[in-house]
Design goal:
Blueprint (H helix, E strand, L loop, with lengths): L1 H7 L4 H11 L5 H14 L2 E4 L2 E7 L5 H40 L1 H25 L2 H17 L3 H15 L9 H21 L2 H15 L5 H20 L3 H19 L1
Antiparallel strand pairs: 1-2
Helix pairs in contact: 2-4, 4-5, 4-6, 5-6, 6-8, 7-8, 8-9, 9-10, 10-11
Length: 260
């Protein structure tokens, strides 16, 4: 009971606020315990093995329960509940990053329990076109799958994300969407270089180069130098040594200028 009270007054507090905003009722500790028990009986929550006071969430509500919930709280209340998931899990994402850095064993346990919900939060942000928040969840999940040493699983998620948001870079897009695309494409380029897919690398890097040519500032210059460096790498592997030396020289000139 003390453990539940501590949870209810720490990072779980937003759930109580959400409960009140959706149902117009206060959530007491007894209500919270009863809600957890009911959710566990329905299969929405699962008790963690050997820890009867701890639960992890099912990533998606079953369809029949989604319909029932929508009828009970109405469409506005249902949307409010659904859209609050990214806000709540943004806090958990920050906790997970700290655990990955300092307590990897705890990170493994907590992250495994909430991986599905982090993915659900990401998909909701994509639907809402909240690109900044989606970029944040994407970075956390990339770190998580790297920690789990599951590059194949993250590759599938990355392909889905790029298919969802598109690969084309345009100066007309919101900056946060561009950053999300570039972040995913940078990871893809690293794999393509290792696999010898030089045409794909060159096409993506040239598109990035066109994008940053209209931008200014240190960040844009660093990205421009990185594009030139990768294009030099492609030219070198194709044995186009003069072109590789020219591109590498341009990248080096930018880095030296930034260090002054």
């Amino acid at each position: 009971r003390k453990k539940m009270l501590a949870l209810a007054t720490s990072w779980m507090d937003p759930w109580a606020q959400l409960y009140e905003s959706v149902t117009s009722q206060r959530l007491s500790l007894e209500d919270w315990e009863r809600t957890l028990e009911t959710a566990s009986d329905c299969g929405l929550l699962y008790r963690m093995a050997g820890q009867p006071d701890r639960y992890f969430c099912s990533p998606e509500l079953p369809q029949f329960l989604r319909g029932k919930l929508r009828r009970q709280v109405g469409e506005p209340g249902f949307r409010k509940l659904d859209n609050a998931i990214p806000v709540l899990y943004e806090e958990f994402a920050r906790i997970l990053i700290r655990l990955l850095q300092s307590h990897p064993k705890d990170a493994g346990r907590e992250g495994s329990a909430e991986e599905g919900n982090l993915l659900r939060a990401l998909h909701i942000t994509l639907r809402l076109e909240n690109w900044y928040r989606a970029w944040g969840f994407t970075q956390v999940l990339a770190r998580w799958f790297d920690f789990r040493k599951e590059p194949g699983a993250w590759r599938l998620h990355r392909h889905y994300l790029l298919a969802r948001i598109g690969r084309e870079l345009s100066p007309e897009d919101p900056p946060e969407l561009t950053e999300l695309r570039v972040y995913l494409l940078e990871q893809e380029i690293a794999e393509q270089l290792d696999n010898g897919e030089f045409d794909k690398v060159a096409a993506t890097r040239n598109a990035m180069l066109d994008l940053v040519s209209a931008q200014s500032g240190p960040d844009a210059e660093i990205r421009r130098a990185t594009c030139l460096h990768d294009l030099a790498n492609v030219a070198f592997r194709r044995r186009q040594l003069d072109e590789a030396a020219r591109l590498c020289g341009q990248a080096l000139e930018i880095f030296e200028r930034l260090e002054r």
